[in-house]
Amino acid sequence: MGRPVNEDASSHASIVDPCSFTRFAEQVGPSALRVAYRWTRDRQQAEDVVQEALFRTWRSRERIVENPRAWFFKILWRVFLHHQKQRSSRRETLSEHDPFVGGTDGPYDQVEARLDVEGWLATLPELDRHLLAMRYGEDFTIQEIADITGMRVGTVKSRIHRALKQLQRSLSARDGTADGS
């Protein structure tokens, strides 16, 4: 379900001038960095992806037709895919067992639990991990994810459902329950 036309028009107008765009960038920046980090698993690459997406958004800000936030995240997604293609031959991934992936501020059991979750997520196809990060990490709606990725709503729903089922089976296997149902 779309937003009212006047809201889209005011949203569009709100990022055309430099000061408004700066406010927009400050609003979406932290969320964009979290999403990009989940996708790239590398802070420097995530910052590069966000910076390039913000630059592309600024450069084409006159063309915004709909929700600027969703439009920006679609650009972010495309920039990420472009970076992945460029880096595919020399991509470096963080170790699943690196305690610094999630920070060391919490107790050891929180770090261990995070490593377990990251290990389970690592068993999923890369696209499914990205979809889960957008849906549950950043609270995007299914429609927003579909718009960002260019996938059909039904495809987004089924991939997220299958990914959650796979994670549920992994948890059940760990806990020793029968079938994960």
UniProtKB/TrEMBL annotation:
One of its GO terms (molecular function) is DNA binding. This is RNA polymerase sigma factor. GO terms for biological process: DNA-templated transcription initiation. SUPFAM superfamilies: Sigma2 domain of RNA polymerase sigma factors (SSF88946), Sigma3 and sigma4 domains of RNA polymerase sigma factors (SSF88659). Transmembrane segments: none annotated. It comes from the Bacteria. Keywords: Sigma factor, Transcription, Transcription regulation. The lineage of its organism: Bacteria, Bacillati, Bacillota, Bacilli, Bacillales. Gene3D superfamilies: 1.10.1740.10, Winged helix-like DNA-binding domain superfamily/Winged helix DNA-binding domain. Belongs to the sigma-70 factor family. ECF subfamily. Residues 121-167 form the RNA polymerase sigma factor 70 region 4 type domain. Residues 26-88 form the RNA polymerase sigma-70 region domain. InterPro entries: RNA_pol_sigma-70-like (IPR039425), RNA_pol_sigma-70_dom (IPR014284), RNA_pol_sigma70_r2 (IPR007627), RNA_pol_sigma70_r4_t2 (IPR013249), RNA_pol_sigma_r2 (IPR013325), RNA_pol_sigma_r3/r4-like (IPR013324), WH-like_DNA-bd_sf (IPR036388). Pfam families: Sigma70_r2 (PF04542), Sigma70_r4_2 (PF08281). It comes from Alicyclobacillus cellulosilyticus.
